[in-house]
Amino acid sequence: MLGAHVSSQGGVAAAPARGGALRATAIQLFTKTPNQWREPALTTATVEQFRSEVSRHRLEAVVAHDSYLINLASPDAVLRARSMQSFTNELDRSRALGLRAVVSHPGNYMDDRDAGLERNARAYAECLAAVPGDVEVWIEGTAGSGTALGATFEQLRDLRNALPDAFRTRVGFCLDTAHLHAVGYDLAQVERVWEEFDRVIGLELLKCLHLNDSRAAGGSRVDRHEWIAEGKIGPEPFRRIMRDPDLWGVIKIIETPKRDDPLRHDRRMLRRLRAYARGNTRAAAGV
User: pTM for the whole thing?
Assistant: First the structure.
């Protein structure tokens, strides 16, 4: 399952066709404008059209990414309440659209890390309780800047473990290669990174990978995405990820720069990753 984060411009029902144009089998999208609090209402017609388009373009997995404004770890009661309402709405839209999960950045604790982690976990539990069903939350590891939670595997584990048992089964993880690199995980020895994740959390809980190279130095805590094999991470970790049988069931999504031509650049990156999966290094070098 390989694809890209695609635009929802023109409405969510327009997103699956953009995945189809990439020959993707998986896509990620925003169900609302990510830098605004305004919440769209989904009509029955929109939901039906979206589901029909997903089927027509043979997408095996579709996930949402939550809003940039949400901070479920905030000590500010007003911001946290607004964030919880927005996240609940995100889960509700995703359930209606038939999405598998919402990928969620942990919040910024601002004051005390342990207190922030507890607030974040309690918010996840309350939001999941408000939206019963199969839609999951996949917590994304962060690049570790400022007071962001979730930079290390231990923090991710502790966040999930702080949820009540009733909701923990609906929570998995998404890892971003650029974020791992920014935190200081050594992707030159990527198999050891997965071994550490398996030891600390359990590889069965890794549901999604964001495949991005990085313009920033390893360990810098700076999140700057670059095209696959054209940044500080380089091609080899991506070759090994694409050929690792333990990761075949993990959804893989690119969030690489779209720059002047989103369709062309996303196609180029996906061709490169498919060539890595086939072991065709000459083809990969040429795209």
Answer: 0.95
Q: Which of 279, 194, 176 is nearest to 235 (CA)?
A: 279
| Residue spans of alpha helices (H) in 57-131 | 77-97, 113-130
Residue 238, classed as helix, strand or coil, is helix
Tell the burial category of 222 from Cβ atoms under 10 Å away from its Cβ (0-12, 13-18, 19+).
Answer: middle
The reported pLDDT for the residue numbered 41 is 87
What pLDDT does residue 287 have? 59
Which of the 8 DSSP states describes residue 189? G
Residue 282: per-residue pLDDT: 58
Longest CA pairwise span in the chain (Å): 55
Output the CA–CA distances (angstroms, integers) from residue 64 to 6, 57, 90, 121, 158, in the order listed: 10, 17, 8, 19, 23
- Note the pLDDT of residue 188: 97
Give the 3-state secondary structure percentages of the chain, helix then strand then coil, rounded to 5: 45, 15, 40
- Lookup: tokens for 84: 């919880």
Helix 190-200 / helix 153-161 crossing angle, nearest 10 deg:
30
In CATH terms, 2-285 corresponds, of 3.40.50.1970, 3.40.50.150, 3.20.20.150, 1.10.10.10, to 3.20.20.150
Tokens of residue 125, six digits: 């539990």
Q: How far is it, in rounded angstroms, from Cα 203 to Cα 187?
A: 16
Beta bridge mates, 148:
108
Nearest alpha-carbon partner for 237 in 199, 180, 197: 180
The pLDDT value recorded for residue 220 is 97
Nearest Cα to Cα of residue 57 among 29, 25, 35, 81: 25
Residue ranges of the chain with pLDDT lower than 50?
A: none
Side-chain half-sphere CA neighbours of 152 within 13 A: 9
